[in-house]
Amino acid sequence: MSSLLEALNKGILTSNAEETIAIGEALSKELPSDTSLALYGDLGVGKTTFVKGLAKGLNIAKNITSPTFNLFSIYKGDKQLIHLDAYRLSPEQSIETLMIEDFLCSPYLCVIEWPDNVPELLNENTLKLELSIQANSHQHFIQHI
Ligand SMILES: Nc1ncnc2c1ncn2[C@@H]1O[C@H](COP(=O)(O)OP(=O)(O)OP(=O)(O)O)[C@@H](O)[C@H]1O
Ligand SMILES: [Mg+2]
């Protein structure tokens, strides 16, 4: 296991967005193919910020923003990054119309915000990360769960 994944098992504290981006950037280069990513955590904990780092690591120049009109966006890079924000979905809704299952394997890297809303997209190859904000220090925390 890589030292980054080992560190994520314990959890990593970040003091600003740039540090979170740096972790995403490093992780994007270490993920085995066919792995997808589930980013858990409340509003504003840094999920999209983390995706910016993944994009940077995959040499995607476009600015990553949360998909607003679409549920997901596709970015071309060293891998094709699929960014799904499932905030407005509910677990009861069928995601058949999303047609996203094909993106769960190589050459795509699928990253999902609010993964609890799309349980059918999670499988044994999903790497689950939980993001949170430390109450006392306001640092952000990223942990492999
Ligand atoms: N250590 C940190 N890590 C990540 N973001 C940070 C950190 N410190 C401050 N921030 C700021 O917190 C905000 C996080 O917003 P972001 O959109 O990434 O959250 P989110 O989890 O995707 O929220 P949402 O659930 O609304 O999609 C950004 O404005 C970012 O600059
Ligand atoms: Mg977001």
Can you describe this structure?
- This protein has helices at about 5-10, 15-30, 45-55; strands at about 10-15, 35-40, 70-75, 80-85, 110-115, 125-135, 140-145.
- It has about 140 residues and is of the alpha/beta class.
- Strands 1-7-6-2-5-4-3 form a seven-stranded mixed beta sheet.
- The protein starts with a helix and ends with a strand.
- About 30% of the residues are buried.
- Adenosine-5'-triphosphate (ATP) binds near residues 48, 66 and 140.
- Adenosine-5'-triphosphate binds next to helix 2 and helix 3.
| Spatial shape | globular
Question: Which structural class matches the secondary elements?
Answer: alpha/beta
Q: Estimate what percentage of residues fall within beta strands.
A: 25-35%
Order of helices and strands: HEHEHEEEEE
Helix content: 10-25%
Helix count, per DSSP? 3
Kindly report how far apart the N and C termini lie.
15 Å
Main sheet: strands, sense, barrel: 7 strands, mixed
Enumerate the spans where pLDDT stays under 50 for 5 or more consecutive residues.
none
Secondary-structure map with pairings?
Elements: H1 3-10, E1 12-14, H2 17-28, E2 36-40, H3 47-57, E3 72-75, E4 80-85, E5 108-113, E6 126-133, E7 140-144
Parallel strand pairs: 2-5, 2-6, 4-5
Antiparallel strand pairs: 1-7, 3-4, 6-7
Helix pairs in contact: 2-3
The structure holds adenosine-5'-triphosphate and magnesium ion.
Magnesium ion binds at residues 47-48, 66, 85, 113.
